Give the backbone structure.
Amino acid sequence: MTGWPRVVVLSAPSGGGKTTIAKAVRERHPERFGFSISATTRRPRPGERHGIDYHFWDRDRFRAEIVAGKFLEHAEYAGELYGTLRAEVDRIRAQGRHVLLDIEVDGAAQVRALEPDAVTVFILPSEPRVLLERLTGRQSESAAEVERRLERATYELSQAMHFHRLIRNDDLETAVRDVVQAVADGETVRRSIGSSPDFAWINNYVSALQQERARMHAQKG
Ligand code: 5GP
């Protein structure tokens, strides 16, 4: 069976708020949405649990599972491997629920190619300033780390126009409703952002990030 239930991809730059939205969508609608637990080679953060937040695997295991064809998609992010397990997607679909994936943009591109009926959503706060504050955030982070995040966010934004819908993350409940609506809209949602007015808005965003990077370079120099 293809198409229904759907695979629903949520992507956003780091600090875009997608994990909170994914969690809220499945908490509000547990009968309609299931969350696919990814595998990763990164270490658990405090409070994260194996098999609940991620399947935490070492590189050898991860590579073996790639060779065995266990992943629907996989990608490298910040030097670590992440991937969506086919078994997770199948398990949730077999329950008749839509499958929520919280994944980065390269994985989203693979899903779009493999699952023509997937709905892919890119999430951003309305104001570039809000994202910039989250990216440049804590005092403890080095300039190099902040620069790396800005660079990555610029790349992620450059991929936004390939997604089906842009959702603004200014208010959690509105964003949750928008995700649910995007899935319900089905076929009508399946135009890309690249052909919509949101395109100009994404470009403004890219400019804001570039200005911030230039400002940081000027400070350094
Ligand atoms: P974190 O390490 O902060 O949990 O996640 C880092 C990035 O990896 C986030 O953008 C997250 O959405 C993404 N990610 C998590 N799981 C997967 C996955 O299965 N596949 C891909 N491609 N990206 C993932």
